[in-house]
Design a protein that fits this description.
Blueprint: H1 7-21, H2 30-65, H3 69-74, H4 80-84, H5 92-96, H6 104-123
């Protein structure tokens, strides 16, 4: 504007006049209620932070004391049946041998038979 007055200043003046004329009920306890609510909020935030820190410390201490899985397995008590049982020399070749597998020739013959069977089904 030409006289240097800003629109915000005009609005502010109008609001100020409107609030001077309006009557509001007294709020003597409002400040104490606001302070109490802020205090509870701060307490909750601090309590949450302390609880999180406590959980982290307990976890770190427990993690530091835990043994590795290999140590746990090494310290497990072994059953007596495993200790008392002996493996005979006759059983070793069977235990150490590779599992029985069909030879490639047998597999090739099976595949050829499947193809023949499918061709016959297709002709029918």
């Amino acid at each position: 504007m030409a006289d240097g007055t800003d629109f915000d200043d005009i609005d502010e003046d109008r609001l100020r006049e409107a609030f001077k004329e309006a009557s509001f009920p007294p709020t003597p306890r409002l400040e104490s209620l606001v302070r109490r609510r802020l205090g509870r909020r701060r307490f909750a935030i601090r309590g949450g932070a302390v609880a999180a820190a406590l959980v982290a410390v307990v976890w770190a201490v427990d993690w530091g004391r835990s043994r590795s899985p290999l140590e746990q397995v090494a310290q497990l008590p072994q059953s007596q049946s495993t200790n008392e049982r002996t493996i005979e020399m006759a059983d070793l070749p069977m235990l150490l041998a590779s599992p029985p597998v069909d030879s490639l020739d047998l597999l090739a013959h099976q595949q050829a038979d499947f193809v023949t069977a499918l061709e016959q089904l297709e002709k029918e």
